[in-house]
Design goal:
about 35% strand, alpha+beta, 3 helices, 4-stranded antiparallel β-sheet, 4-stranded mixed β-sheet
Length: about 140
Amino acid sequence: MKKVFSLFILSLLIFSGCDYWGYYTFKVKNSTQETITLKFLNNSSYDRHDENKEEVILLPSEEKVIRIVDAPLNSPAHDCLTEHGMGYFEELVFDTYVNDEKLEKQLWQAENWTYHKNSKYSADYSMTITNEMIEE
């Protein structure tokens, strides 16, 4: 009887699922003297983070968290932008406005982000918008 009970407990431990989630935090710093507005084109179908607004305004020299994106367990331990490209972060696509004029460059592209792993459950991506990035 002890063996049957032990096997039952062991099978529960092996086959039970965990709903642990990691997350990515996306931060943008405006290192220019211009006011920059990011208008997001896609919203996450599951959005539980108050930081995820449809529009973010960055004043000169200001840094803000623009998105927090949930990810499956252990995903933040890997640089998903390098591995999967922007398809993984469709809610991160935005139009950029400099002093209310739309910028033709797409700053949300993967090459503009720097990855930093915090733990196996969280990682940061950061972007610094420079004068060179917003010049036409």
